[in-house]
């Protein structure tokens, strides 16, 4: 994506944890897995994926990280004050996941491209996005979307 991205200051719902998002996310999807439901306290997690260098000025002193069993290697941070999502880290912190609720300007973000773990949905979603079920299929589609996102990013920087 060649569109300019105006940096945004992201935060949990009470602004105790903050960070600066400097670049367009490389992916955005809607995850219906039960862990995301528990983590967000909502029906699903509408979440963006960013590369580590694209998020700076991390102030996470009120974030408590916890690992759920699945999906592997995602460390999910909840705010110790508002108990809402702060930030999520994957691949040893090289990928950063930020729920769209934590952006001040969601309209500037790319649109979500798919639903994951749709079999775990709490209610049907009426949209035209592809819907994937289960761990194997969902994980495969995440990896594909990330590869495409990184490829687009490289191309746009040339
Ligand atoms: Zn908070």
Topology:
Elements: E1 8-11, E2 18-21, E3 27-31, H1 34-40, E4 45-51, E5 55-59, E6 63-67, E7 74-79, E8 85-90, E9 95-99, E10 115-116, H2 134-157
Parallel strand pairs: 3-10
Antiparallel strand pairs: 1-2, 2-5, 3-4, 4-9, 6-7, 7-8, 8-9
Your description of this structure?
With 158 residues, the protein is an alpha+beta fold. The protein has one domain (8-157): glutathione-dependent formaldehyde- activating enzyme (gfa). The chain has helices at 34-40, 134-157, and strands at 8-11, 18-21, 27-31, 45-51, 55-59, 63-67, 74-79, 85-90, 95-99, 115-116. It is globular. The mean pLDDT is 92. Bound molecules: zinc ion. Residues 12-14, 16-17, 79, 81-82, 84 line the site of zinc ion (ZN). It holds the Pfam family GFA. Keywords: Lyase, Metal-binding, Zinc.
Low-confidence stretches: none
Count of spatially separate domains: 1
Shape: globular
Work out the helicity level: 10-25%
Determine and state the CATH class: Alpha Beta
Q: In total, how many beta strands? A: 10
Write out the strand line-up for the largest beta sheet, numbering strands in chain order.
6-7-8-9-4-3-10
- Main β-sheet description: 7 strands, mixed
CATH superfamily: glutathione-dependent formaldehyde- activating enzyme (gfa)
DSSP helical segment count:
2
Roughly what fraction of the amino acids lie in strands?
Answer: 25-35%
SSE run:
EEEHEEEEEEEH
- Enter the CATH topology name: glutathione-dependent formaldehyde- activating enzyme (gfa)
Query: Which CATH-level-2 architecture?
Result: Alpha-Beta Complex
Mean pLDDT: 92
Bound ligand species = zinc ion
User: How does the helix and strand content classify structurally?
Assistant: alpha+beta
